[in-house]
């Protein structure tokens, strides 16, 4: 198998032939990648919930928050009852996995309480669940032509409309997904 560099801080873009309904036409921010596996948050699928729904379920007052109607994303098929906040800047929260020196993902209540008080990070995205891969699994899927990967663009994560993120992420790496075949090229 080819030697891959760590994919942390990369966008994983589902190829058009990826039929798994959990990942069909998704863009996933890879938060952590090592020889032990990978973890990421899908950034282009929303749930029926808004941030105020999550805050209310947690008993956090929503009266002040300016982000009440911010959509909650479906971050992946694993632990869909667990919340994740992708945010910038990194800040000092109780439970944060730094992705870069400015971008992180937090799972602690304190960041949601701060967002409710309009004291949270400048930019954020809330998701339920995550995507996970075992040791070598993601690398195999890339070799099998299931995924493209490319650099993170914060504008895609935080500003691009959800329905345009898949194509925008592919365009960032110079790929027009509408012209791709699902077959891997073999000599």
Question: What would you say about this model in short?
Answer:
This protein has helices spanning 51-57, 109-116, 137-143, 154-158, 165-172, and strands spanning 10-14, 27-34, 37-42, 46-50, 71-74, 78-88, 96-98, 104-106, 123-134, 147-151.
Descriptive notes:
Strand 7 and strand 8 form a beta hairpin. The chain contains five helices and ten strands; from the N terminus they run ββββαββββαβαβαα. The longest helix has 8 residues. By secondary structure, the protein is of the alpha+beta class. The radius of gyration is 17 Å and the shape is globular. The chain has a single domain, classed as VC0467-like (3-Layer(aba) Sandwich). Strands 1, 2, 3, 4, 5, 6, 7, 8, 9 and 10 form a ten-stranded mixed sheet that branches. The chain starts with 9 loop residues before the first strand and ends in a 15-residue tail after the last helix. The model has no long low-confidence stretch (mean pLDDT 91).
